[in-house]
Amino acid sequence: MTPMRMIRVPLMLVAGAVAAFAASAPTHGEVIVETESLYHHIIVETDGSIRRLLFRRRGVDHSESAVDLSAPLRPQMRYTELMFSGLLYCPDPKDILVVGLGGGMLSGMFAHYFGDANVVTVELDPKVFELAKGHFGFKETGRGKVVVRDGRVYIKRALNKGAPRFDLILLDAYRGGFIPYHLTTKEFFEECKRALKPGGLVVSNMRTDFETYDYQRRTIRKVFATCRAFQGGGNTVVCALPVETKVAPDDLMKRARALQEKHKFQFDLLGVADAYERKADYKRHGPIFTDDYAPANILRRR
User: Fold this and answer.
1) Distance of alpha carbon 183 from alpha carbon 159, whole angstroms
2) Please, where are the H alpha helices in the chain?
3) DSSP characters for 239-259?
4) How far apart are CA 113 and CA 221, in angstroms?
5) Spacing of C-alpha 104 from chain mean position
6) Is residue 19 over pLDDT 50?
7) Of 9, 67, 85, 89, which cross-links 230 as Cys (Cβ 3.0–4.6 Å)?
8) What CA–CA distance (Å, rounded) separates 124 from 13?
9) 294 exposed, middle or buried (CB, 10 Å; 0-12, 13-18, 19+)?
10) How is the chain split into domains, by residue range?
11) In 3D, which of 14, 9, 3, 93 has the Cα closest to residue 55?
């Protein structure tokens, strides 16, 4: 979700003319879908067998997902690989929750490699779900289902109903380059924490190029006893565990090697383990996001 492209608009002297030229020609591939939903200006591009899902916001196209239809298990974006870092702490998940569908790459990969697990994906935008099925080859399975709902609402209702808790909660919900603010607060992470089984963890995809990043890192660290990060491609994926957990980088590599041999991932899990953050890249001291204080709409512009 890191790559962005600016829409180049010619300077016009006539008032209102800029809006007429806002949707300029694509620079990466052929546009096969361009549509508005309740939540996004959505673009689907194709370049050979590669399909890309983009959300346009304030004249910028943000790449949300990419799938190679000829090799759907081979990640096209670095952050997708990094989301598998959670396996280094929970190697055999049975109940997985994915918040944010995109093109379905992440959900489809977990459903494939962990066929005995229940993989629930929560997606806010029904249009995104429709496009994932129609243009990205995403398919629901008996154990891999999609629920069209707000992710926080889903977790809160699951807690209220006493539904089965999760081994992995994968947070990958974006709206044109930023995470919706209500999915960044201390109260939300506390709800995620309560929804975990013993030994479970939250895996959160964060972008490093907004000032919100420091707040998000501090906030998740406030809630979880252990936070370990893996970096690459302009993203940082944080593995957050409720209990104090210390695993040396060499042991992470050993775990990655064993998992790679077992599952035959079409990417290098050892490369994910090697992306372990050895020195924190955020400001540790400062305010955090809460339901009463989450100025994400201001900070994300910086």
Assistant:
1) 16
2) 17-20, 78-82, 105-113, 126-135, 151-161, 186-194, 212-223, 249-263, 269-273, 296-299
3) EEESS-----HHHHHHHHHHH
4) 29
5) 11
6) no
7) 85
8) 39
9) buried
10) 4-68, 78-299
11) 3
What are the residues whose beta carbons fall under 8 Å from the beta carbon of 206, sequence distance 6 or more?
179, 213, 216, 217, 235, 236, 237, 238
In this structure, the dihedral spanned by the alpha carbons of residues 293, 239, 175 and 218, taken in order and rounded to 10 degrees, is 20
How many CB atoms sit inside 10 A of residue 162's CB?
A: 7
**Per-residue pLDDT reduced to its tens digit, 228-248:** 999 999 999 999 999 999 999
Q: How far apart are CA 61 and CA 55, in angstroms?
A: 6
Predicted TM-score of the model (pTM)? 0.88
C-alpha 161 chain-centroid distance:
26
**Which residue's structure tokens are 């899990």?**
269
Residue found by looking up tokens 């983009």 in the block: 54
CA 105/CA 149 separation, integer angstroms: 19
pLDDT in tens, 97-143: 999 999 999 999 999 999 999 999 999 999 999 999 999 999 999 99
**Which CATH superfamily is 78-299 part of?**
Vaccinia Virus protein VP39 (3.40.50.150)
